[in-house]
Amino acid sequence: QIADATGKKNMVSHWFSASQWQLPDESDYLKLQALFARVAEEKHQRGELEKPHHQLVSTYSELNRQYTELQSEYKHLRRYFGVTVQVPYTDVW
Length: 93
Prior knowledge:
Layout: H1 2-6, H2 12-15, H3 26-45, H4 53-77
Protein name: Site-specific DNA-methyltransferase
Keywords: Coiled coil
Coiled coil: 53-80
C-alpha cells in the first residue's frame, strides 16, 4: 500500500527499516499521512482497533505518571555515590 500511495516501491525499505534508513521527502510524507489516516479510519469503521486514540493517550499518560513516580522513588532509595574525605564510602565494591 505504501509503494502504491507514493509510487516509489524501492524506497519503502529505506523509510521503514534500520538498513540504509532515510526520511521520506515532504510530498511522500504527506502521501503517507493520508494513507495512514485512511487505513486507520477503515480499521476503526470495521472495529479492528482495540481502543480509540483518546483511550490510548489516557492510558499512556497514566503509565507515564506511574513510571515517573517509580523513577523518583528509585532515585531516593539509591545510594548517592560521592566520595569525599569525610565520607569515603569504602564499601562500594
